[in-house]
Model the fold of this input.
Amino acid sequence: MKPIYLALLLVSTLVFSQDYQFKDVIDLECSDVKSQGNTGTCWSFSTSSFLESEIKRITGKDIDVSEMYHVRNTYPKKAWNYLMRQGKAQFSEGGLAHDVFNAIADHGIVPESAFSGLDEGVTRHNHAEMVSVLKGMLNVYIDNPGRQLNPKWKEAIQSVLDVYLGENLKTFEYEGKTYTPKSFQEMVKINPDNYVTITSFSHQPYYEDFILNIPDNFSNGSMYNVPLDTFEQVISKALKGGYTVELDTDVSEPTFSSKQGVAVVPENDSKQAEAIISVRPEKKISQEYRQQEFENYNTTDDHLMHITGLAKDQNGTVYYKTKNSWGTENRGHGGYVYMSSAFIRLKAISVTVHKDALNKELRKKLGL
Done:
């Protein structure tokens, strides 16, 4: 081997065998990392975190939003969907960001101090039993042993939710004032109509909205479809403008590591174990490859998180600083995950942002 080629190989090896060193370029305000416990409610934890950043941006107030109030008011909708489809639908703990906004539109917002969803003395959420009870009841109603479904089934579902999560609030006290959930929503200035979900898939027309058929989209929420480059630009522009971003993504890959706090797409599939602990070359992600991986189930709708910043590693590669809801114990970077541009381009299902975070040209194309 000629000396010049040997030198180039040595330089390349050194560049791509270093431990990650991240420098935050944008680091927007957000609340502390929480744990969703033994539940599938990442959709509410991440969206509530996103809302907390929005409330801070809009009003300057630090508000701890109740995640479980949104969950409490989404289960009746899940139950209706499952029952009316005679069990031919998913009934699980999952959901998407628009489910939180739907709950807010109908029921408002409350602070954590008013509705924790926990029994006194309990500090960790666990919904396994509750969901099993609810699904068991719904399956009995679907079997319809009485030959005529009693309309009180809705009350029975609400009663189970009252027992496990707590009764819906009519009024509550916060910082010496009495609020309803709706008046509290007005105080924190959150209007669900101001938020849009953006995605990028080639099986639907660009710059139009459509319903993405993924298991957790039980409520048939629509998303605006844009080309992949535009999709990533939406994220980076939002962050540069001071807006955080709600993220729905695949985290099933071995190169997503909450322990290391890194998510990447290595160029060489045999280097996956090394890629989460040291810098490796990454794949170039095209629209075609993204679509292929979605259609063959390699990219799945797993988890929702909250993008709060933008960073670069020592080689200038862009990463998105993303707040998780798995607590901080044994989690890299205090419960945050640095997701590479390649990972976002391949594995991000969708993002939700304030409409004002979009540029004028894109808003015009989307009719917003």
